[in-house]
Amino acid sequence: MKELIKSLISLLFLILPFSFMACNKDENPNTFGNTENELQGNENLNTSGNIENEFQGNVIIVGAGASGLAAAKKLEEEGISYQILEATDKLGGRIQKNENFVDFPIDLGAEWIHEDKSILNFLIDQPGNEPNVETILYQPMNVQQVVDNIISQIPNEEMIDYYEGYITEYKFKNTTWYDFLHENFAQNIEQNIIYNARITTIDYTGDQVVLTTENGTEYQADKVILTVSIGVLRSNAITFNPPLPAKKITAIQDVEFLPGFKLFMKFSDQFLSRCYFI
Ligand SMILES: Cc1cc2nc3c(=O)[nH]c(=O)nc-3n(C[C@H](O)[C@H](O)[C@H](O)COP(=O)(O)OP(=O)(O)OC[C@H]3O[C@@H](n4cnc5c(N)ncnc54)[C@H](O)[C@@H]3O)c2cc1C
Q1: Neighbours of 233 (CB within 10 A)
Q2: Measured over all CA atoms, what is the biggest interatomic distance in the chain, rounded to whole angstroms?
Q3: Ligand 1, atom 7: nearest CA belongs to which residue?
Q4: Quick check: 69 and 189 in contact, CB under 8 A?
Q5: Who lines ligand 1 at CB under 6 A?
Q6: Ligand 1: distance of its center to the CA of 231 in Å?
Q7: Of 44, 124, 184, 189, which sits with the fewest C-beta atoms within 10 Å of its C-beta?
């Protein structure tokens, strides 16, 4: 049972990646590498060790999820011109919230803050471990199991073992990952998002990268940061010209990417404080 809970939790708790990939038209037309290296192509360290960025071109970020917004924030700070092309009509990607289901906001996607709540300060360059939003430790102890139609409580020692063998979790209290993202990453950036712009082709054969949407609109950029999920890349929803190098395709196919979904149910009576269906 413990293992089953673990696998269920592992399925839902996918790590929130504030990372992204980039493609550009530099020396090697097959480049599809690390964004920081790509964007820093012309930069030098000054005497105080800070990066002096000499990049003058424009950047297109594909996707307005956490990664796209984090990339945009970085470009904004560096004074680099950019636009975000987002397939849907909202920002946040797999981070969304609902405020109508119950009397507190619920995360529709990412919900848990993994391991250490000080990650929130780290993400926004704030010192200290205590975030300025209220969080709660997530360690349910009164967990019931059903074996052969018999309901029993999992002994507390087993739950303690479970948490010791697994990562600590926190959750936002009366706020959500979406609020955190919106407040700390989307401010000053929203006006640069073009919604309903689903990219279907990325052509990086010429001097500029040309991106085409499903309705045929073209955008051009000196560099592109692509933040769509591995699932989108695997589905071949975007055609690359020239095709991505075999090494990248293998990496995209090989990385573990599990599907996950959430189901919210309302009951007329409260019969359990929390319920896991396994
Ligand atoms: C049900 C669920 C629960 C989760 N729980 C947690 C959790 O508790 N804790 C945690 O840390 N993480 C969790 N995660 C994972 C977390 O949500 C993701 O890792 C994170 O949100 C990914 O952000 P991203 O910006 O990299 O990708 P995404 O959020 O997928 O953003 C990509 C964006 O690109 C857009 N896009 C896609 N294709 C195109 C295209 N062709 N053209 C233009 N735009 C395009 C998408 O619409 C989207 O807005 C969960 C995920 C799910 C689904």
Answers
A1: 21
A2: 70
A3: 110
A4: yes
A5: 12-17, 62-68, 85-88, 93-95, 109-112, 114, 198-199, 227-229, 232, 237-238, 260-262
A6: 10
A7: 44
CA angle 160, 270, 114 (to 5 degrees): 35
**Tell me: the pLDDT tens digits for 198-239?**
999 999 999 999 999 999 999 999 999 999 999 999 999 999
Share of the chain above pLDDT 70, in %: 78
Q: Indicate the pairing of strand 209-213 with strand 199-203.
A: antiparallel
Positive or negative: CA dihedral 233, 239, 240, 245: positive
Give residue 238's identity as a one-letter amino acid code.
Answer: I
Architecture of domain 21-41+55-93+189-254: 3-Layer(bba) Sandwich (3.50)
Contact in structure between 61 and 72 (CB atoms under 8 Å)? yes
What is the tens place of the pLDDT at every residue in 164-200? 777 778 999 999 999 999 999 999 899 999 999 999 9
CA-nearest of 89, 138, 76 to 112 is: 138
In one letter, which amino acid is 6?
K
Domain ranges of the chain: 2-13+94-182, 21-41+55-93+189-254
